[in-house]
Design a protein that fits this description.
- The protein has helices at 2-10, 12-32, 41-50, 56-64, 68-71, 80-95, 97-104, 107-138, 155-182, 187-197, 200-235, 271-288, 299-307, 313-334, 337-346, 358-393, 403-428; strands at 237-244, 247-249, 252-254, 258-264, 349-350.
- By secondary structure, it is mostly helical.
- Strands 4-1-5 form a three-stranded antiparallel beta sheet. Strands 2-3 form a two-stranded antiparallel sheet.
- A hairpin with a 2-residue loop joins β2 and β3 (252-254).
- α6 crosses α8 (107-138).
- Pfam families: SecY.
- Belongs to the SecY/SEC61-alpha family.
- The chain crosses the membrane at residues 18-36, 68-95, 116-135, 155-176, 188-207, 213-233, 270-289, 314-335, 371-393, 399-417.
Length: 434
């Protein structure tokens, strides 16, 4: 293993890509701790020490920003506006025919869709930045902390803060694209990976201090089992055999080859979990904005808070149903059996024992439906691990070995290792991992 890593750094262009990626990551992590203009950094740290936040959606966004949200730093919005924009643009392909045409145009069309995603990212950053500043001004970000986070809330300072947060999101988006273009792996995914991984030491340290070494070692053992499960399922696929008929073009005979369509068990990746988590975080956010003047909650808000708590059985049940529903919804949007069947028919391909055309599309739909059910149950199980841990071990809701965090980290790690491995095999005929 260490000899393979040494070979990576002995390869000049691969070494340069890795060092460039590490440099961008270092800049990103430094920006997490630079406070936005107009923010009282000392008061923010004191409020963080009290440990009371709005939770819910903002705790979820804080996970993806590497802690920058609750630091109210220039990178407070993190990569979430870009993720949201990319998902929206992808879903709009079903609604707007022009977007679907751009998707089919190849590289030129993809470039236009990427540009639309950038514009939408900036718009969402403006909206989310304004919301965050409003929470910081009114005390909604840290309900139990009375210290002023923004001492001077004049219109000039507020506009400057909104501009700084939006510019920070734009800079993160640019850094992610630079990693993709000049570094190793997908830049946006790697920045998310770093944001989530940065919270692991503090989460594990909190578990050790509050629960002791026994629970700490138990969490490590559970984490290793979960990682093994996620790696196994993420690498699993259903291979549908495809046979191409022989064709004579001029004096050459082409075709006659056998291949397969790889259908992943988890085709939706982590998107359904993000959708479900975001929607179920809204009730807690609504409760935080409907407190009485004396700090108490109305009767309806208390009922909503009780039933929308992550430890509630109703929450877990609805969470599971949402994940299963969103998994089917997202797979139906991203995988079109009719389009795959038409492409196979166009190039003379067929599934052995299945007629070309509509029978092939029906067969693919049948296979994908069965695979999606297994993938949805797997996603629901992994997503419920932090909630179960919160009930059993009194661990933090952002339990490090489960939910979106472990799915994203394992997925990004596998993809990055594959890219490094492919580049090494081009030069040495030996990959990173033997």
């Amino acid at each position: 293993m260490f000899s393979a890593i040494a070979r990576v750094f002995r390869t000049p262009d691969l070494r340069n890509k890795l060092l460039f990626t590490l440099g961008i990551i270092a800049i990103y992590r430094v920006g997490v701790f630079i406070p936005a203009p107009g923010v009282d950094y000392s008061n923010v740290q004191q409020c963080l020490a009290m440990g009371s936040t709005t939770g819910g959606l903002y705790q979820f966004v804080n996970l993806f920003s590497g802690g920058a949200l609750l630091q109210v730093s220039i990178f407070a919005m993190g990569i979430m506006p870009y993720i949201t924009a990319a998902i929206i643009v992808q879903l709009l392909r079903v609604v707007i025919p022009h977007f679907e045409e751009l998707h089919k145009e190849g590289q030129a069309g993809q470039g236009k869709l990427t540009q639309y995603t950038r514009y939408l990212t900036i718009a969402l950053a403006l909206l989310q930045g304004t919301t965050l500043i409003t929470l910081a001004r009114t005390g909604g970000l840290f309900p139990s902390c009375t210290l002023p986070l923004i001492p001077d809330d004049s219109i000039i300072v507020i506009l400057l803060m909104i501009f700084a947060l939006t510019a920070g999101t734009g800079l993160i988006m640019w850094m992610g694209e630079m990693i993709t273009e000049r570094g190793i792996g997908n830049g946006m995914s790697i920045l998310i990976f770093i944001s989530i991984a940065s919270g692991f030491p503090s989460a594990m340290g909190a578990i050790q201090q509050s629960q002791g070494w026994g629970t700490f070692l138990g969490v490590i053992a559970v984490g290793l089992l979960v990682i093994a499960l996620v790696v196994f399922v993420e690498q699993s696929q259903r291979r549908v055999p495809v046979q191409y008929a022989k064709r004579t073009i001029g004096r050459r005979t082409v075709g006659g080859t056998s291949t397969y369509i790889p259908l992943k068990v988890n085709m939706a990746n982590v998107i359904p979990v993000i959708f479900a988590s975001s929607i179920l975080a809204l009730p807690q956010m609504i409760v935080s904005f409907n407190q009485n003047d004396d700090g108490t909650l109305p009767e309806w808000a208390m009922w909503l808070q009780t039933h929308s708590a992550s430890s509630s059985p109703w929450y877990m049940l609805v969470y599971t149903l949402f994940i299963i529903g969103f998994t089917y919804f997202y797979v139906a949007i991203t995988f079109n059996p009719v389009e795959v069947s038409d492409n196979m028919k166009k190039y003379g391909g067929f599934i052995p024992g299945i007629r070309a055309g509509k029978p092939t599309a029906d067969y693919l739909q049948f296979v994908i439906s069965r695979i999606t059910f297994a993938g949805a149950l797997y996603l629901a199980f992994v997503a419920l691990i932090p909630l179960i841990a919160f009930v059993l071990f009194n661990a933090d809701q952002n339990f490090p070995f489960g939910g979106t965090s472990i799915l994203i980290m394992v997925g990004v790690g596998l993809e990055t290792v594959k890219q490094i491995n492919a580049q090494m095999q081009q030069r040495n005929y030996e990959g990173l991992l033997r």
